[in-house]
Amino acid sequence: MLIFAFLALLEGSNKLEPIVGMFCIGMLLLGYSISFEINDAYSHKKHFRIFGIRIFKSQLDFFKPEYVTVFSSTGVKNSEWGPIAAMGKQVNDHSYVVRLFKGGQYFSLYRTKSYELAKSNAEKVGELLKIKIHFRD
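RESULT FIELD:
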């Protein structure tokens, strides 16, 4: 979107409003993020941010977990679209996931490529919520 706005501006388009609109939408899409606040009182919040500035927060409906787990996850990205398609290959995406469980319910907290970072975050969450930690390789 930002590229289209820039190209339209270079082309000398007569109307500036569509260009400004595309630029603003592009900036919102680039800077938008969601984060979660988890505490030991179980009054968890979901934060909506743009470029790190909180614009809105809401109560997060959340269960009281029985345990937290760290496990490795491998996914395959097909070569149907993007730069991988030009090479004609598949790419394996390996990461470690920190997830809270209660019975059959789960909530994914964190995903990273580093096992040490995932383990550290799981230990912090387990200590905060006073629940067991399970590690799976």
